[in-house]
Amino acid sequence: AASPELQERGRTKFADVADALAEALGKRGVDAANARLLASVGVAIFQCGFDRWVDDPDAAGLPMRIREAADQLAGVAQAVGGARSCGGAAAGELLDAFLGALPPGAQHGGAAIRLP
Question: Buried-most residue among 25, 85, 97, 109 (CB within 10 A)?
């Protein structure tokens, strides 16, 4: 496990990413409350996918791991009956924004990951 200082630094970086995503979604016409929700969910999806990728980087590239995490969330939401109200189009747009923001090396399974 990382030191408490590194854990806090990671939380701060992901909070900054969530803020930037919420702002970008707002500029696309998503209301502020939904933008914050989608940004938080998007960060959680990214973190889950990133953790899976770090655990076994040769099994699949980072974009695939992120998509797997998003698919898992969609499956769980559908299983509990919430998929009808999840806003799948906006969630897909958010996932595409994450994948589009990855550096070229990460798009193809490389290790070049930069977070704000």
Answer: 25
> What DSSP state is assigned to residue 59?
T
pLDDT in tens, 29-79: 888 998 898 889 889 998 899 899 999 988 998 889 989 998 888 887 777
User: 0.70 cut: is pTM over it?
Assistant: no
Give Cβ neighbours of residue 40 (< 8 Å, ≥ 6 apart).
18
79-88: Cβ within 8 A, 24+ apart: 87/34, 87/38
Q: In angstroms, rounded to a whole number, what is the distance separating the alpha carbons of residues 41 and 94?
A: 9
Q: At 5, is the secondary structure helix, strand, or coil?
A: helix
Closest CA to 65 of 47, 92, 86: 47
| 106: its two tokens | 């990460």
Q: How wide is the angle at C-alpha 33 spanned by C-alphas 52 and 101, nearest 5°?
A: 40
